[in-house]
Design a protein that fits this description.
Keywords: Coiled coil. This is Chromosome segregation ATPase. With 353 residues, the chain is mainly α. Among the domains are: 53 residues, no CATH class; 49 residues, no CATH class; 115 residues. Helices cover 83% and strands 0% of the residues. It has five helices and no strands. The longest helix has 185 residues. The chain is rod-shaped and about 250 Å long. The two termini are 171 Å apart. The structure holds zinc ion. The site of zinc ion has 8 residues, from loops. Zinc ion (ZN) binds next to loops.
Amino acid sequence: MSIPEITDVRTCGFPGCEEPVDATAGVGRPAGYCANPAHNRAAAWRARRAESGRVERTVEDDKLPVDAARQRASVLRSQVAGMVEHLQQQLVVLVDELRTVADPDAAEAQIEAITSDAAEQVATAAARANRAETATRKAEAERAEADAAAEESAALVDELRTTLAALEQRAATLEGDLVTAGEDNARATAEITALTDQVAALSIENAATNAQLTETRELVTAATTAKDEALAAAREAVAQAAAASSRLERAETDAASTRDLLDQARTERESARAEALVLTGRLATVSSERDSATAEAGRERSYAEQRVTDVRAALEQQLTQLRSDLDQARTSEREQRTRADRAEAQAPRPTQK
Ligand SMILES: [Zn+2]
């Protein structure tokens, strides 16, 4: 279906353009460029120059490329001439050097120099070999030492393994101990908590006991005060009882002496009576003598009667006094007894002996 007339497959001559050549050109040589009007011969030349990277381009290069090129060619020609001269001089030196290369004397001199260098290098190599041998022996000795050290290390490793096994066993034991210690710790904590509770309870009880103790002390103090008061009262009662008993003894003594006085008075009265009887007898006796001694008898008689009367009055008076004293003593005794009884009744029981 393509058109078979199109056999020209050339591409555009502009650098980088892949379009086919425009085949519609009518007059003259085929342009060799695509249908793009910017792709012509001059533009392609400038593009190629730009691609070739020339530096010393001027505006004239675009305007008058031929003149610019001629000028530069002239400069280059003079430069090339200088270079040719230099090349000729170099060529002379080159020929001389090549002669030296081909000279057998020079070759022999070089061989000698090389042989000497080689001998020197051989000596250096031998010395190096010696050093290497020494180093090898040293290395072997070091290897032997290293082997010994390795054996020692192996033994040490075995020992360390044994130690490690023992340590692992010890670690297992310690873990077990740790678990046990943890349980013990938990128990101890629980016990501490219980003990703390007990301590709190005991503190409360202690406070209550202290309060009771204080109360009891106050009671004891009050009881002691009451006891002291009771003792003082008892001592006072004992003193009162002693005073009462001494007063009673004194009253009894007074009564006894009063009784003695009474007895004495009675005796005196009896003796007075007896005397009166005697005097009466004497009066009777004297009566017979009355006649003879009537005056004397009368005086005697009045005297005797007067004396009897006086004695009787005195005795009566004494008796009355004694009776009164006795009554008074009895009354006093009774009062003292009553007072002593009252004191005994007032005295508290502890004084009872
Ligand atoms: Zn083109």
